[in-house]
Amino acid sequence: MVKVETERKENVFIVTINRPEAHNAVDAETAVMLNDAVEVFKLDNDLRVMVLTGAGDVSFCSGADLKAALTLIERPGSEESGPMGFSRITDVHKPTIAAVNGYCLAGGLELACWCDFRISVMTAKFGVVNRRWGVPLIDGGTQRLPRIVGLGNALYLIETGAMINAEQAWRMGLVQEIVTKGQALRRALELAGMMSKYPWTSLVNDRRAVYEGLTLNIADGLKREKELHQPSIADKEMLEGLHKFIEGQRSSPPATLQ
Q1: pLDDT-derived band of residue 241, with 50, 70 and 90 as boundaries?
Q2: 87 and 119 fall within a common domain
Q3: Containing structural domain, residue 101
Q4: Strand 96-100 vs strand 117-121: parallel, antiparallel, or unpaired?
Q5: Do 188 and 61 share a structural domain?
Q6: pTM over cut 0.85
Q7: Mean of the pLDDT values across residues 138-155?
Q8: In whole angstroms, what separates CA 196 from the centre of its chain?
Q9: Is pLDDT at 17 greater than 50 in this prediction?
């Protein structure tokens, strides 16, 4: 059985952690395959949105396979890409979505936080449960989680090791939509398909401006936004979109499930 499955659906790239018998925990082989999948997505200009999920309906990813924890750290390339496979990769300048279909714990939570946003089933559970065994967050959790949920919420999760449900995660801002069991991937693909068809230059430059602006003061952030959007203003797709608007061709925004 292949431990990571990939699938292309038009401009969307689906990456599935395929170890349901181990709650989709990541061992060294899985980490290598995850890294390879992200590299494919990064380099293929025809792929516009990546959706990360787990096989089955029990777990998204329960974190590192603790029975093989040392192999994750010793894996060639782990220093650069992160033990879990791709958590330290920061130059993927395209949208990513986590379709959380179950337990999203420890390193699995870190992988979900690597994504731009998260769609969760109502039965999912989230937590830094590795706290109980003294295993640290070394796949970006200490950096991304506070940026997503705020300092107090991040430290609550990190220090207590508490496991929270999808509704609590939604209230914190960790999850953007909650769907019924079995529907996380479907909803993520619906959003990904819609996003992939928007005028592309302005979308990726808006995304990049957001991420780069996190480390800048407001004046420098506004300057960087202006710099990044020079190509957007002259983009042919934007001009075509404006003409459609003027002619009355208006598409509806995506319906929210909240």
Answers
A1: low
A2: yes
A3: 4-196
A4: parallel
A5: yes
A6: yes
A7: 97
A8: 16
A9: yes
* Closest by CA position to 109, among listed 75, 74, 149: 149
Cβ proximity of 83 and 107 under 8 Å: yes
| 165 plus 209 within the same structural domain | no
For residue 121, the cross-strand partners are: 179
Per residue, what are the HEC states of the chain?
CCCEEEEEECCEEEEEECCHHHCCCECHHHHHHHHHHHHHHHHCCCCCEEEEEECCCCEEECCECHHHHHHHHHCCCHHHHCCCCCCCCCCCCCCEEEEECCEEECHHHHHHHHCCEEEEECCCEEECHHHHHCCCCCCCHHHHHHHHHCHHHHHHHHHHCCEEEHHHHHHHCCCCEEECCCCHHHHHHHHHHHHHCCCHHHHHHHHHHHHHHCCCCHHHHHHHHHHHCHHHHCCHHHHHHHHHHHCCCCCCCCCCCC
CA distance linking residue 185 with residue 97, whole number of Å: 10
138 and 182 share one domain: yes
Our CA angle for 240, 243, 247, nearest 5°, is: 140
Residues 107 and 142 in one domain: yes
C-alpha dist (Å) from residue 146 to 152, 153, 156, 190: 8, 7, 10, 28
Domain contains 205? yes
- Does residue 205 share a domain with residue 192? no
Number of domains within the chain = 2
Residues in CB range of 234: below 8 A, 6 or more apart: none
Pull the structure tokens for residue 40.
């494919």
